[in-house]
Write a structure and sequence with these properties.
About 30% of the residues lie in helices and about 20% in strands. It is of the alpha/beta class. The chain starts with 11 loop residues before the first strand and ends with a strand. Keywords: 4Fe-4S, Cytoplasm, Iron, Iron-sulfur, Metal-binding, Ribonucleoprotein, Ribosomal protein, S-adenosyl-L-methionine, Transferase.
Length: about 450
Amino acid sequence: MTNPPDLRPDLSRAHLTEARRPGQPTIGMVSLGCPKALVDSERILTRLRAEGYGISPDYTGADAVIVNTCGFLDSAKAESLDAIGEALRENGRVIVTGCMGADPDHIRDHHPRILAVTGPHQYEQVLDAVHAAVPPAPDPFIDLMPAAGVKLTPRHYSYLKISEGCNHHCKFCIIPAMRGRLSSRPHRAVLREAEKLVESGVKELLVISQDTSAYGVDWPRADRPQGEQPITALARDLGCLGAGQDLWVRLHYVYPYPHVRELIPLMADGLILPYLDIPFQHAHPDTLKRMARPAHAERTLDRIAEWRGLCPDITLRSTFIVGYPGETEDEFQTLLDWMDEAQLDRVGCFQYENVEGAASNALPGHVPDEVKQDRWDRFMAKAQAISEAKLAAKVGQHMDVIIDDIDEDGIATCRTKADAPEIDGNLFIDEATQGLEIGQIVRVEVDEAGEYDLWGKRTA
């Protein structure tokens, strides 16, 4: 089950509803890829809106279109090229930015008619390209900027990016080459952005970066908080923003460093959601070494047990790669056995594919496509069985849910604290939904469970 298309970050279009004033230049935006790219798109549109540009929800109403691309996988690059082609056909005036913009010649080889190409988080260059294509014409008496800026997500949740780049050298990943080394935003700047979002009505902050648990380790020691890691101090302060009201703070992309343990008491105390999104990638030590990932799967199991001991309600989410070069059947079976022990709550899986520029391309022992597919099928069957059993155990429980959508039939699509937008399951309320509103947090009793989703009824 996936969320409605208008909530999917990879299909985002700006959805401002104000009327276009006479003579106002208007820009469209297509945002592809991960939530980190979505935040970049929101920042670009916020800057443009502050300069007096209107934001068009479609191609025909735009004087030019920005396509924010994804370049993480070759399949994502193909999708980005398709999106650029669609924007050229429908509008004709296209500016390209984002991760794929790090290789402008490749883009221009496919689409020579584009107006400009910029790389990831190059906001000033994007603005310069827009100014050249569509000169600004602000009216300071009419153009008003929303306090929280332009958002491409629903009003009740927002992604909060705390750093750029990454210091790891995983052989299958080219993010450091595209986005550079870790660069953490100042604590106060992140907190102020979060405060503005909460003031504007946001009920859920989704903390994102390429390596969230490394936040602040690039600062001089004198600038770091005393006695704890910067991410712990930030998580505590974000959680305190919700004092006296419902505010969910959810952590994504948490690398499993030992100091992650510091975050768990904050979850047990209710300051942040008891949810960790940790990309383990595999379980066999040899596979992990070929990936250039930490090769201590047994230590990971110990940490998982410790986390659950400190916070029994914690939800653990992870992603894995099957069919990595050199992966044997025994290595894959180790992963399946590890899954039986770890009993993760939410799991995603990708079949390995080469990415131009990645060191893993040159590794020996590439796995045939049919073997990758077979292993993916077996892995997902295992993950589905675990998910189904865990969700069945929730029947009869009472829990808070946040409402993402209410359709024309009155069915409310919600999420529990264990569910992040787009990547996890949903809880559906299909009766007595009168008076409910999108963004509202309500109490429900779970009365039915499926493989990935729950159903419930509202309680008093």
